[in-house]
Amino acid sequence: MLKYRNLVFYLAIYALASCSSERNTFTNRMYHNTTARYNAYYLALEKVEEVENTIRSSHEEDYAEVLPVFYPIDSAVIDQNEELLKDAYSMASKAIDWHKISKWVDDSYFLIGKIQHMRADFDDAINTFKFLNVNSKDDHVRHLALTQLLRAFIDLRKFDDAAFVIDYLSKENGISKENKQYLYLTLAYYYEVRGERDGILSALDKAVDLTTDPKEKSRINFILGQLYQRAGFDAFAYDYYQKALKGNPPYERAFFSQLYSQQVAELEKSKDFKNVRKYYDDLYQDSKNSELRSVILYEKAQFELKQQNRDEGIRLLTLAAKEDGGNIKQKGYIYNRLSELYFEDIKDFRSAKFYLDSAMGNFKETDRAYQTISRRKKVLDEYVVHYDLIQYNDSLIRLSGLTAEEQELIAENFIKGEEQRLINEAAQKNKQKSTGIFDNLLAFGGSKGSGSTFYFDNSTAMQQGSLEFYRVWGTRPLEDNWRRSSKGFQQAIGQTLEEEEAGIIIEDVTTQPDITLPSKEELLKNIPRDKSTIQQMKMEMEESYFQLGKVLFFDLKEAESAMGYLHSLLEQFPNSNRKPEVYYTLYLVAQEAGKPFEKYKASLNREFPDSQYTRSLNNPSQSSGAQGNRVSGDRYKEAYELFMTKNYLSSRSLINQTLKEYPLTKNTDKLLLLDIMNANHLDGKVVYKQKLETYINNVNDAQLEKLAKNMLSALTGDITMPPPISRIDSVGDSNLLVKDTINAAPEIIKEQLIYKENMGQTHIFILALNPQQVQETTNLTADLESFHNSGFSNARLRTGTISINKDNTLVIISPFSNAEKALDYRKKFLTEFNTEGLNAGQKSGSFVISIENFQQLNKRKDLEEYKDFYKEAYK
């Protein structure tokens, strides 16, 4: 018995000795290898793989675009699975700390680096992978770490570093088949991010041969099919689509593989159009494709459009938009295609804008199509704002000229007509015919081509008059409201096509909305009754005619339509302050349209000989460009120095010479205002006042306009304006006039500020960048995320961007519960944050702002105005 007890004692001592993480004996190594692999490392790997599976399952494939090589890492998914990653990180760390002599230490370090990468802790992840490359004796782990390091550099768009890793790996020997497969996928990702299709094809061709997982092999083959189809190699595309059908792929991918393989093999080349249409109709009727019917209709519409059957294509797209289920992005593509048709073919920009609204509602900001759509939408938004205002104001002004009895009669007839229209709509819904998008936009009246300009016949005027007889619009998503029609689409486009002829049967399940018609009093109260209101509405119309002409010419490339609106401005407002610029714009428009244009130049020289636009046409070679901006800026500073030393004649001479040689630059308005300041000393108060009034009516810069108004107020005696200070803060600053005039009249500026101090309100931090700086700071977002994770991990800060105008993009960090916390963040940002392309001067231009004040800033678009307030309120 004693011997047995002694044996147990010695075995226990031996086991404890084996548990040591330092002693490098065979027994000890075997113990730690087994324990590390099947306990800590195994559990960590299991949790990481669970998160990776969630990333894959949460990703919704967009088959309208080439599928991404890697499933994108969604930060929302990472946040939702933070506990899993935290546990995995802890387990991997224990595998390292408790089993230091285990051969699974390097694998555990790799898992830690992978978790850091998934969390977007790029600095830590990169250091971990570099550590493994230098210290690991396991080539398998080292090569895997180098490939993951390459992927991190690609994520950060650090292509020079990525190229170095690629070169380094190309010289490595003994890379395993598994690691080669992942390396080739990562190379494909590198070329994908850089937009180099040939590189993607080459890398994926090699990766697919090394892939053993049937499902992954199917996906890679599908991507290759998409790439070859877009490159025009239909035979190759067909082969890869057929290969993608193998490996038991998800039904949706199998469907698209079959659809696209038929396209490249038959549909694009077939002359038997009846057979092609039947193919789509059979797909549609197949119950297995019920979730993909919008796709089928979209593809059939694309086929019809290629056959120049535009009306049928639009009809099919309209039906596709009504289908329930399926990929939400597909609806985005449908609306975007409709927008393109109305924009490019029909030239109905108003309809195009509303389709684009619906398209954007179905895309995320991170989607590839979003940025393209948003740029086009900004232009169309501006068009619709001015177009609608002209329609609305014009119709109300016309109504104001009628007698009260005539106004009441029109209102009564309109209400009766609307009641009858709703009755007809209800009857229409009982018919077995497909419905379309609209008879005119917003359920009634007013498209570009045929819409009336009269208030009671025009949808725009009615809406802007706050006549909410379609109150349903306020309670349902935009994409499901504006496009609903009160008439069949065939009626809207002059067709009477039955579903049987289309080969597709669609049941209209649209329910009748709860509609409230306006009263006669509601209609009549919007008609202006006094001259001042009518005059204000005319001034708004004058500006909208001008802006609409510019949008049509410069952005929409519609020269003849632009001429029409600009001529309307001249006819209706012959004394417009915009007249010089209108002549100038008409000169450019007519020249491009191949119409007589010299008459506009003659009108400028005759009526406005001293205008900068006249000078520009008389000196076209010097009117703009980088050289003009640079030289005019330098001369402005010199002329300002002369003004400050009371050399008014010399200052004026230099200004006139500059305006003659460089009539239209970014410094023109400042030069003109400086010349007016000279006039105060050379020409007397009467001339000075006249020039100020003319300048205020023509200047486009809101800040300079405000300053000119202050100068005029000081002259007329409303307020007293101190003389300008005799100090120039920065010789290299071309905004001296603005700065010194602000400094010269602080009381005036403060009176006009609309910003309010509210230090307890929620604040945001803003970094303002110009377009060039945005391009230079490609790693900004990623570096900000790392900065937040390291210094503000519990603050739940979010990063976003917004463009308030063409010159300023705001990087927004939010939220901060009050001004103090926002200012603390800014202090750390200035001292601790670094990213490539962002210097100390640009960082110092950052500021904080309350939510209430940001709404004003976003409305007014004047950064300098707010910064003046910021310097006073937050100093």
From TrEMBL:
InterPro entries, sorted: TPR-like_helical_dom_sf, TPR_rpt
The entry's keywords: TPR repeat
Biased composition (Polar residues): 611-630
Recorded superkingdom: Bacteria
Gene3D superfamilies: Tetratricopeptide repeat domain
Ranges of the TPR repeats in the UniProt entry: 218-251
Start and end residues of each stretch annotated as Disordered: 611-631
Name of the protein described by the UniProt record: Gliding motility protein
